[in-house]
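Q: My labmate handed me this sequence with no annotations at all. I'd like to see what the chain might look like in three dimensions before we decide whether it's worth expressing. Could you predict it?
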Amino acid sequence: MDFKEIKGQRHYLFDSKDEFYAISGEDAAVRRNWRDGSEGEWIFTDDDHVCQILKCFKVGKNDCVRTVCGTFSRKNKKNKMLGEEGIAEHIYSFSGKKIQPKDRELSERHFLFAKYIATGDDIIEAYKKAFPRSKSDDYVKRTASSLIKTENIKKMINEEIRAILDEEGVTPKYQIRSYKQVADLAEKDTDRLRALDSLSKISGLFDSNSKKTEELTVWAGFSPEQLHSIQNGSQLKDGKAKLLGKAEKKSEEV
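A: Here is what I predict for the chain of 254 residues:
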């Protein structure tokens, strides 16, 4: 048995139903499927630990439940609530992932801010929803713009978007298959090339860190016709050319 204290109240995670019944009594009700649970109900996790649903809420179209194990989407069947992983470092993390933010003081409202952005709100609207007491529009704009640049918020938004895409079936396999279909069936060469370019980047076919050397040679004292003859490899009348400067630069090919 373990517990997490939230706002002065202890919330427990029991290792088994026997441990739970020993504390709560044999008549205590425990719901088998946590996805059907209501706020305040005791539920079994997917590995038969016992905890309580602390909150039921929606994020966009997602029905979510929050427990001491974390926050989970009811819809995502791949998302397992596992008691053996223990109490979450931060119970407000979406889909039960044990995100451990470097900044331990990041509040629940910051997590809500990230979730609202992941579900399609712009940063101003997301901030107002997460911080409804903020009255000054200038303050909201300034603070939201600053918050969106932090690494913790970026990471949370990416996690939320990834979870939502998984729920909708937009997996990496689906994306690769879709690109391939475009490359195989596209009528326009431009569409086919863009799809092939995306597949090449995904597969790592081209080394993005490859280096190339660009040589810049500056010539002077020649007419356009003479420069043209040099470019074509022919010799000048006097067989000489005046080299003013030569420079090399290294550039990254992205």
